[in-house]
Write a structure and sequence with these properties.
Blueprint: E1 8-10, E2 37-39, E3 48-53, E4 74-75, E5 80-87, E6 99-109, E7 119-127, E8 134-139, E9 148-157, E10 163-165, E11 170-173, E12 178-183, E13 185-186, E14 197-198, E15 204-209, E16 220-221, E17 226-228, E18 238-239, E19 249-257, E20 261-265, E21 270-272, H1 277-280, E22 304-305, E23 312-317, E24 320-324, E25 337-338, E26 345-354, E27 382-385, E28 398-400, E29 409-410, E30 413-422, E31 432-438, E32 442-444, E33 447-451, E34 454-455, E35 467-469, E36 471-475, E37 478-480, E38 486-495, E39 500-502, E40 516-523, E41 532-534, E42 542-547, E43 552-553, E44 556-557, E45 560-566, E46 576-577, E47 584-585, E48 600-605
Parallel strand pairs: 4-11, 14-23, 24-33, 25-35, 37-48
Antiparallel strand pairs: 1-2, 3-5, 5-8, 6-7, 6-9, 9-10, 9-11, 12-15, 13-23, 15-19, 16-21, 17-20, 18-19, 20-23, 21-22, 24-26, 26-30, 27-31, 28-30, 29-30, 31-34, 31-35, 32-33, 36-38, 38-39, 38-42, 40-45, 41-42, 43-44, 45-48, 46-47
Length: about 625
C-alpha cells in the first residue's frame, strides 16, 4: 500500500455484489484499534535514485529520455560534491522521502556498461524528509584513494534495499604525471656531452609514473613544450610513443628527437588527455590541466601531466650533412685557372646539417656546430674531368689552397666558400674542364656524421664547368740603343694541345719587379747602369719590363747585355736586381704555377741596330 504523501487516509469499499450483514469494518494492527482511518508518517515510496552534479537542475529522464543529469570529471587530491535525488516511479523527485537507516552512496566501476560491483569509494549518509528528496554528498580527499576512468554513482537505501544508479558515468583521474627517468640523461648539458644520439634516428627512453597503481592509461608527448639547452622553447619534434601503463608506470624506449643539442620536458610536456574519455565527448571536463576544480559546480581539467621540468636529454647530433651546389664559381685568373695556381678556383656552396627526415636542424650552430668549416680536409673534396667524369690523370691532384675555406654556421646552414688548387700535371696537357664534389663528414664522440657525395658547382644554363690550363712564362729577348729605354716583353703562355701559345685571357698575372733577377752582364754594361721597372698586371697575356737607357759614361757608351730571369718561386742565394741606382737582392716569386724553371730573356743595348730607324718628337 502506498500514498502520495504523508497524511491520514480512510479505507473504504465499493462495488460489492452483496453487502456484509455487519457492514465493512477495518482493524489497524499498528494501533490495535478497529478503525478504517490510518496515517502514513514515512515518505512516499521511493522507486530509484539518481546521482548528479551538485546544484545542477534535475531533469526527469522518464518523461524526457534525452535529458542529462551529468557527473563531471574529478581529480585525485581534490574533494567534490554530488547530489543524490530520490525518485518516484514516474521519474519525479520524491520530495518527502525519508530513509530510516540512511543510504550507502558508492562509486563503482562501470566497465560493463552498468553499475558494477567493484567499489572505488563509499559513504553512508542520512536522508531526512527535510532534504526534500535531494541530498548533497561530499567525498573528501581521504575518501578517494585511487583513480578510475569509468565510474557510476550507486545509491542503496539500507532499510528498503532500494537501489539506483546514476544515469551518467564519469572519471576520477590522477592528479599528475612524474617524469621519473630519461636516458641518456644530462644533468649539466654541454656541447661535448656524451653519449650522442643522431637526430631523428637514434632512440632514447623516458619513464613516467602517476604513483597510482591502478592507472593503465597511455601518456603522450607535447612537442610544443620542450626546452632546449639554450633555455628556449624547442622547434624540435619528439617521435615515438609510450606503452600503456602497468601499475601506474609507463615507459617508451623508441623515442627520437628531430633537433640538435639537448632538450627537456617543460611542465605538461608529458600528458594524458584520454583518461577521462567518458566525459570528454559530453563536455563534462575542461580542456585544461585544472586540478582543483573551478566554478559551481566544480569543473576539473580533462588532462593531467608532469608538474615539474624533467632532466635534460641528449646530446643529439645531426643525422647527416647535405651539400647544395652553387651555380657560380670564381676562377683563379678571370675566366680560367692555371694548374697549381694558388689561390685557384673558388667554389661557393651550401652545407646543411640534417636530421633523418632531411630537415635542417636549427640548433646546429655556435658551440654545438662541431664541424669545422675552415678545415679543407673535412669536406673530402674530389676532382674529376667534366668531359668524361673520370679521375684526373698525369699527376694532376686536387689539394688544399693556402686559403682556408670560410663560412659560419647559422640555424644549421653554412654558406661555404672553398678555394682549391689542382697540382701541375707531370707533362703539358691541353686545357680541360673540371668538376669538384664534396662529401663532408666529421666524427663526433665516436659517431660519424656523414653525407652523400655531391657536386659543389652545377652549371646554370649557358655556363660551363671551370677550365684549367697548363701554363708557362716566357721572357722575350729584346735589343735597342743604349740611348733609349728598352721594353722587354714577358708573356704568359699555355699548352693548347699542339704547342704553347700566348694566353690572351690572362690579365691577372702580376710580377713584382723585385722578383726579376738581373745577371750575366756583358760588354761595357755594368750593374745598375740600366734600371728595371715593371707595369703589372698583364694585359692580354703580356707584361712589359722597362729598362732605362744605360747612356754614356765618361764618353764611352754603356753598350752590352743583361739577362732577365723571373723568379717563379724561391730566389737563389746571391741573386740581385736593380730597381734603383744601387743593386738589391732579388726576392722570391709567388707564381709557381708557371712551372719549375725560371724563364730567362736577354736585353741588349747598342750591339745590334736599334729597331727604330727614325723617330721625331713634335711639341
Amino acid at each position: 500500500m502506498q500514498g502520495s504523501a504523508a497524511a491520514t487516509y480512510t479505507l473504504g469499499v465499493s462495488g460489492l455484489t452483496k453487502t456484509p450483514l455487519s457492514g465493512v469494518k477495518c482493524y489497524n494492527t499498528t494501533t490495535n484499534a478497529q478503525s478504517c482511518s490510518f496515517t502514513f508518517t514515512n515518505t512516499p515510496c521511493v522507486n530509484t535514485f539518481e546521482c548528479m552534479e551538485n546544484t545542477l537542475t534535475y531533469n526527469n529522464r522518464t518523461s524526457n529520455p534525452s535529458a542529462r543529469n551529468p557527473l563531471y570529471t574529478k581529480a585525485i587530491g581534490a574533494s567534490f560534491d554530488v547530489d543524490v535525488v530520490a525518485l518516484l516511479a514516474n521519474g519525479a523527485q520524491s520530495t518527502g522521502y525519508n530513509s530510516t537507516l540512511g543510504l550507502n552512496v558508492s562509486l563503482v566501476s562501470d566497465d560493463s556498461g552498468s553499475c558494477g560491483s567493484t567499489i572505488i569509494a563509499t559513504k553512508q549518509v542520512a536522508f531526512a524528509a527535510s532534504d526534500n528528496g535531494r541530498k548533497k554528498v561530499t567525498f573528501s580527499v581521504a575518501d578517494i584513494t585511487r583513480p578510475h576512468p569509468n565510474l557510476r554513482c550507486k545509491v542503496t537505501d539500507i532499510a528498503l534495499l532500494k537501489t539506483g544508479c546514476s544515469s551518467d558515468n564519469f572519471a576520477i583521474r590522477p592528479a599528475s604525471l612524474t617524469v621519473t627517468s630519461v636516458s641518456p640523461q644530462q644533468l649539466s648539458p654541454s656541447n661535448t656531452s656524451t653519449p650522442v644520439r643522431r637526430a631523428g634516428t637514434d632512440n632514447f627512453s623516458v619513464t613516467v609514473s602517476t604513483n597510482e597503481p591502478t592507472y593503465t592509461g597511455t601518456p603522450k608527448v607535447d612537442s610544443g613544450k620542450l626546452d632546449t639547452h639554450a633555455g628556449i622553447t624547442s622547434v624540435g619534434q619528439v617521435g615515438g610513443s609510450f606503452a600503456a601503463a602497468t601499475l601506474g608506470v609507463s615507459s617508451g624506449s623508441t623515442f627520437t628527437y628531430s633537433e640538435v643539442g639537448h632538450f627537456r620536458f617543460q611542465v605538461q610536456g608529458v600528458y594524458d588527455d584520454t583518461y577521462a574519455t567518458v566525459d570528454i565527448a559530453n563536455g563534462d571536463c575542461d580542456n585544461s590541466f585544472e586540478n582543483n576544480g573551478v566554478g559551481t559546480p566544480k569543473r576539473f581539467g580533462c588532462k593531467f601531466g608532469n608538474t615539474a621540468v624533467s632532466s635534460y636529454i641528449g646530446r643529439f647530433i645531426p643525422d647527416h650533412f647535405k651539400v647544395t651546389a652553387g651555380s657560380t664559381y670564381t676562377d683563379g685568373c678571370g675566366t680560367f685557372t692555371y694548374f697549381d695556381q694558388d689561390p685557384g678556383l673558388i667554389t661557393p656552396f651550401v652545407l646543411e646539417a640534417k636530421n633523418s627526415a632531411d630537415v635542417t636542424t636549427q640548433y646546429y650552430t655556435g658551440d654545438y656546430a662541431l664541424f669545422n668549416l675552415s678545415t679543407w680536409t673535412n669536406y673530402s673534396f674530389e676532382a674529376k674531368s667534366a668531359s668524361n667524369n673520370q679521375a684526373l690523370t698525369n699527376g694532376a691532384t686536387l689539394t688544399a689552397s693556402s686559403q682556408s675555406p670560410t663560412g659560419t654556421w647559422g640555424a644549421g646552414i653554412a654558406n661555404v666558400r672553398a678555394a682549391h688548387k689542382i697540382t701541375r700535371p707531370n707533362t703539358a696537357v691541353a686545357p680541360q674542364t673540371v668538376k669538384i664534389s664534396a662529401q663532408p663528414s666529421v666524427n663526433d664522440s665516436g659517431v660519424t656524421i656523414n653525407s652523400t657525395r655531391a657536386d659543389v658547382f652545377v652549371p646554370a644554363s649557358g655556363s660551363a664547368y671551370p677550365g684549367f690550363r697548363f701554363g708557362r712564362l716566357a721572357v722575350t729577348s729584346a735589343h735597342g740603343s743604349e740611348l733609349l729605354p728598352l721594353s722587354v716583353p714577358i708573356e704568359a703562355q699555355y699548352w693548347n694541345g699542339i704547342g704553347y701559345v700566348r694566353n690572351v685571357n690572362d690579365s691577372c698575372t702580376s710580377i713584382a719587379q723585385s722578383t726579376i733577377v738581373m745577371k750575366n752582364y756583358k760588354g761595357n754594361l755594368n750593374a745598375c747602369e740600366t734600371q728595371l721597372t715593371v707595369s703589372s698586371p698583364m694585359t692580354a697575356g703580356v707584361l712589359r719590363a722597362r729598362l732605362s737607357a744605360p747612356g754614356v759614361t765618361g764618353g764611352t757608351p754603356n753598350t752590352g747585355s743583361v739577362d732577365l730571369e723571373v723568379n717563379l718561386a724561391a730566389a737563389a742565394g746571391g741573386e740581385m736586381t736593380c730597381t734603383s741606382a744601387t743593386a738589391s737582392s732579388a726576392t722570391n716569386g709567388s707564381i709557381p704555377w708557371f712551372g719549375g724553371t725560371d724563364p730567362v730573356g736577354r736585353a741588349t743595348f747598342g750591339i745590334y741596330k736599334a729597331p727604330i730607324i727614325y723617330m721625331r718628337e713634335n711639341f
